[in-house]
Here is the input.
Amino acid sequence: MADSKPRILRYGMAAVAEVAARITAGEPVALPTETVYGLAADATDAQAVARIYAAKGRPSFNPLIVHVADLAAAEALAVFDADARMLAAMFWPGPLTLVLPLRDGAAIAGLVTAGLPTIGLRVPRHRAMQAVLATSGRPLAAPSANASNGISPTRAAHVAASLGDRIGLILDDGPTEAGLESTIIAGRTLLRPGPIAIADLPFAVERRAEDGAVIAPGQLKTHYAPAKPLRLNALAPEGDEWLIGFGAIPGDETLSARGDVVEAAARLFDALHRADASDARSIAVAPIPADGLGEAINDRLTRAAHR
Ligand code: TXA
Ligand code: MG
Here is the structure.
């Protein structure tokens, strides 16, 4: 992360080239979409995605929306049904996010989907985001470019005020058009209202309850949970436990031998999946520091342990 004020670059060919170079080098960069400014990182690079969370100071991991250049790029990552294709044809490029089954073998970091078998995808219309997608050639994970619990930014100055010294670069292309995060649809369930009016959709959608519970018969999960029992703050395995290590505790595999929480966040969901797939009947995890990204890791582990 940068330790001084971020540089703000005006949109243009040179600026796009620099932003794309930083992103392919693993650095998150703030840039506009037609909805709000996003903090974008290479969705195939787990550590780059972990740096998004570090910069936002998010205390937990939510699945992130992945931005791609066009429908073909989206179909390389997710499985589309007829409904999804119809929505894509009607609203892409534009402020619509589709939650779809993740395609087998898609090169997307587990931290992006929070370990889920689904992925939120969107083809943005904004020229700056489109130019960076084309130049970097990477799918871009991007939540809104504000500190955790802050208001979504619609101008470069909002990003600078909120993320200040936590990011190195902001691509400025003026105020965003919609000023509201994208509409999110999973199957025929509306997960988040947004710039696309429900009345303009080609079919009726179920709405998500205020408390976040899904009303529809569909069983959408917003978090991956291991099937096996999970014990936290383990210094050594008990019985046949599969131990996920950290720092001085090596375990069956480690989140980070050098005790780096960014590396640990990047490996967390893959490690949980491997633990679930192992022969052991239960899972234990070594203590993770409570500060920085450690807070988000501990939040996720606590939820996975109490079900
Ligand atoms: O307009 C937007 O969508 C902005 C711009 C930057 O594109 N992005 C944005 O991202 O608002 P974010 O991270 O603030 O919102 C992502 C939300 C998650 O909280 C979750 O509700 C939903 O998208 N989401 C993403 N992937 C999902 C998945 N696989 N399953 C369920 N929900 C998912
Ligand atoms: Mg947000």
Remarks:
- The helical segments are 13-24, 46-56, 71-75, 82-91, 127-136, 156-163, 261-277, 293-305.
- Confidence is low (pLDDT under 50) at residues 215-219.
- The longest strand covers residues 37-42.
- The chain has two domains: 7-207, 230-305.
